[in-house]
């Protein structure tokens, strides 16, 4: 993909409760010519699955082949994209556990992420969340909502993109 290919920032978040999970994403083109935000509630789906669903829905909302910087507070997603996805895809989303071949957890959603990678160059970066991080240097609202978490991460990444100018330089500091 050429450097002229548009860069999108995709910030995601999720929260779960006893009934299910809420996911949200904000997708912004780095030149600010396009922005969309979506959220929904999934009954009886929790944790990592809901977080991954936000990523899938965000990637599927991108209107053109692009470079994508994914901002996620989920270590599960970050590690899956950085270290697992290629191997899982090569092995048909099966892994060996305790001497048996078993299906990767959330393989249906990881398959959709792999499909999106055919159109987009995806880079993942950890973003802080008011629920999980304590060592931040910038002020954070004490009880930030998921939307505030996402917008905080998006604003921070937007500043970094404008400062570094390229996805490769930004990914190097991820």
Explain the overall architecture:
This protein is α/β, with parallel strands linked by helices. Helices cover 37% and strands 28% of the residues. The strands form 2 sheets. Strands 3-2-1-4-7 form a 5-stranded mixed beta sheet, sandwiched between helices. Helix 1 runs parallel beside helix 3. It is globular and about 50 Å long. The model has no long low-confidence stretch (mean pLDDT 85).
Give the amount of beta strand, in percent: 25-35%
User: Within the largest sheet, what's the order of strands?
Assistant: 3-2-1-4-7
Low-confidence residue ranges: none
The main pleated sheet reads as:
5 strands, mixed
Structural class: alpha/beta
The proportion of residues forming helix, as a percent range, comes to 25-40%
Cα separation of the termini = 21 Å
User: What is the mean predicted local confidence, pLDDT?
Assistant: 85
Number of strands: 7
**Total number of helices:** 5
């Amino acid at each position: 993909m050429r450097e002229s290919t548009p860069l999108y920032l995709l910030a995601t978040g999720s929260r779960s409760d006893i009934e299910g999970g809420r996911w949200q994403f904000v997708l912004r083109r780095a030149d600010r010519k396009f922005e969309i935000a979506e959220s929904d509630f999934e009954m009886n789906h929790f944790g990592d699955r809901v977080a991954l669903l936000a990523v899938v829905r965000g990637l599927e909302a991108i209107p053109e082949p692009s470079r994508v910087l994914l901002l996620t507070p989920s270590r599960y997603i970050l590690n899956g994209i950085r270290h697992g996805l290629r191997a899982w895809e090569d092995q048909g989303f099966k892994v060996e556990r305790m001497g048996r071949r078993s299906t990767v957890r959330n393989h249906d959603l990881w398959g959709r992420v792999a499909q999106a990678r055919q159109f987009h160059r995806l880079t993942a970066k950890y973003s802080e969340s008011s629920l999980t991080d304590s060592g931040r240097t910038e002020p954070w609202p004490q009880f930030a909502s998921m939307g505030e978490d996402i917008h905080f991460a998006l604003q921070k990444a937007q500043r970094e993109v404008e400062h570094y100018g390229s996805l490769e330089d930004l990914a190097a500091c991820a």
